[in-house]
Amino acid sequence: MTPVQRFRTSATAALALAGTLALFGAGTAHAADPHVAPGGNFDLSVWELQEPVGSPGHPTTIPSSRLQGPDGYQDDYFYTDTRDGAMTFWAPEKGVTTPNSHYARSELREMNRDGSAADWSLSGNHRLSATLRVVSVTSNVCVGQIHLGSGGTSTKPLVELYYHANGDIVVGTENSPAGGQTLHTVGNVSKGKTWTYSIAVSNGNTLDVTVNGSTTHYPIADSFKQYKQYFKAGSYNQSSSDSTTNGARVAFYGLTVSHSS
Question: Most buried of the four, 151, 168, 179, 251, by CB within 10 Å?
Fold first, then answer.
């Protein structure tokens, strides 16, 4: 049995999710194929992958060109669950981190289709939507975010969506580019259960966060207006230790991004 196979979800969980649909970037729905890489079920032409391995401060990055298609990239940290077709992210508590974080991640970073890094203005309307379940988590895990891009020196997110071990789903809105985060509990879902979210910017001045159909709104402070933005999604673990077996495993059944003026 390979390391990837050992991490597959149980048959019981798979049966419960047998009817789950994976949503492609075009917005149409198809049954997920458990026998292909994540790129065979998801439009990964607008993402690159950051993994919890590499050299200190320099996590390994897998470009979009290697992620795409049914024979695209997968490993122990990013793979298709062979029982239900989920695009699965594994981030242990011990792993290589980015220079500005203490926590490991297996996470997608938004890109443009020409291979350049996404870096969009807050003006207009922008939405990240997902269907997912948290398979395991030690403390809490960030499963989606809007991150600051160019326009200044801040390396903070604009907003992060967390799932806690007790099932609470919490939105963290950044107070300013200098830091400080306000937390808002927006739902509760038992671990292992499927749920949906969307994180959106409306008309450049409002954050709309929807969890299982319920939407909350948060104003965007003027201090963020100078910054461009980009989406991230996956398993950004929020706890660290010397353990390579404890961590956060997150399975996605749908993931789409949309932008409009």
Answer: 251
